[in-house]
Amino acid sequence: MSLVERAIKKLQESAANSSAPPRPSSAGRVVEVAPQPVAAAETSPLRPHVERPTRIVNIDKEALRAMRLMPPTAMERRAASQYQRIKRPLVAAARGKSDPPIENGHLVMLASALPGEGKTFTSINLALSLAREKDLEVLLVDADVAKPHVSRVLGVEAERGLLDLLTDSSLHPESVILGSNVPGLTILPAGKHTEMATELLASERMHEVAAELAASSGGRRIVLFDSPPLLLSTESQALISSIGQVVLIVRAESTPRSAVLSAIETLGDSKPISLILNQSSIEPDAGHYGYGSYGDAGVSEAGS
């Protein structure tokens, strides 16, 4: 039985779902820092004088816990162990060590079939886990441009971001990437909303931006794209052609089997797909990933 089949089979297993206390409106704020020039290797003859933003995102992990976007302190060790298992094949593919090798394996799309599956929880926690890797950097991109939940949570919804890069070809990607108080983690917000989002994400410019995002750190960067729900948007389908790996988040006892199968069909067979079963009360075995009974249950995630 395949990984996907096994995970789908567990969808109807019981999962804890408790009411949530009041939560902060955001778990991050942008603070000013000294200007940071981009290294020569990250510039081009056409854009030789690029500077990084003079702002960083101060991520408040306790606020993330209060919003149920990080596991409770008592479950931290267990969560860390599970994320280590989850990220190992992703890191291997990003470094070209998977069998067979995956083209653009360092570009990873985090997707779900429907809203409320735990995608924002997964995106943030996977990014934090990857940031702890030696000799790697992680860039978290809010590509859910219609409902930019990651940008709102981190307090960067007013900052320039992905859509600005796609709209203005004169912008260097590094000029809008925000550093953070977490070593190894940078953030690319969704950017200014436009009705042309689907066309921009499907454009040749998107391919160029994705390539530049990955290449700027000399192959050390893994780029995580938090995408819109596959079955409720055209933006996520437009993004697929620019990435190398797909991680599909499924919520136990919530996501219909038909929705999972439709999402996989939408993704097609051109990209390798990893499937994460979220909020499962069943302890994960060696063949599938599970987070246990936590995540962003009860968090309003209408567009994620």
UniProtKB/TrEMBL annotation:
Low complexity bias locations: 14-42
Keyword vocabulary terms for this entry: ATP-binding, Kinase, Nucleotide-binding, Transferase, Tyrosine-protein kinase
Coiled coil: none
Enzyme class, first EC level, given as a word: transferase
One GO MF term: protein tyrosine kinase activity
Region ranges (Disordered): 12-52
Signal peptide (from-to): none
Gene3D superfamilies assigned to the protein according to its UniProt record, in alphabetical order: P-loop containing nucleotide triphosphate hydrolases
E.C. number(s) listed in UniProt: 2.7.10.2
Reaction(s) catalysed by this chain's protein: L-tyrosyl-[protein] + ATP = O-phospho-L-tyrosyl-[protein] + ADP + H(+)
Entry's family note: Belongs to the CpsD/CapB family.
PANTHER family: FERRIC ENTEROBACTIN TRANSPORT PROTEIN FEPE, TYROSINE-PROTEIN KINASE
The protein, known as: non-specific protein-tyrosine kinase
Provenance organism: Steroidobacter agaridevorans
